[in-house]
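--- STAGE predict ---
source: upstream dedup step, 1 unique chain passed
mode: sequence only
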Amino acid sequence: MSFPVQRPRRLRRNEGLRALVQETRLSTQGLIYPMFVCPGSSVRTEVSSMPGIFQQSVDKFVEECREVEQLGIPGIILFGLPEKKDETGSESSAVDGPVQRAIEAVRKTKLDLMVMTDICLCEYTSHGHCGVVKDGEVLNDPTLEILADEALSHARAGADIVAPSDMMDGRVGAIRRKLDENGFADIAILSYAAKYCSAFYGPFREAAQSAAQFGDRSSYQMDPANAREALREVALDLEEGADMIMVKPALPYLDVVQRVRDAFDVPVAAYNVSGEYSMVKAAARNGWIDEKRVVLEILTGIQRAGAGIILTYHAKDAARWLKAC
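--- STAGE serialize ---
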């Protein structure tokens, strides 16, 4: 009988050997935890479609931030629920808005957290779209100045990173100019460069109260069928001044993550979005999957595809599990 000379199983024989030759090493250092901030005080309302995720007033938000810091998660990304909405999302740049107050609270309590903020209008507009609407059409250029003002207000409050997610053409350049002209040249931009018009955002719409009142976002978010187009979007955003780029969602677009990682020598992020999170939570609650193993496998797969930064609602659970390893 002829026996194989090459035996890959030799390096899988026990945990020590497997750990020694592991190619992708997941850690908390690349995780960003999304949080939803709302008006009021003592408010902590669980999002029904996202178990474990809450809409919180600033006081409760700070309590959870302390937990995030203690778990070794380096940063958060903030989404705001305003007191009132209007056609142009004017509350997005209010100095006393929930996101602005939340940033200031993190700074005041001297928490060791990077603060990233989502730059978009969908949470702030009465129609739920990510830009100014006229005659049923989302207008690109009139939206840019509003987004830039929102980013500037976040920078003034103390944000480290602003992350435009609206998918308007030219918004990275408009934000970069506004920040630079006002003395915030050091504020980094993480662009949602390849953001797809995805059905996986459903639970987020509840969390952020941002469902569109008509139509969908296919006229400005990317077609799920397109991968090469993502490279063009990334290239344009980098030309306009983006420091880092993101692919969203993560799991159905791991091929895009890998293409972007191979094509561009910049930090690459991926957003493990609400629908991906909620499916895991629902299956785990029904006893159909081992939640810990599935979550760590998902995050490892996203990192293996090329994302050095992962925005995920699983961040706190993952940090606990990784710490226990």
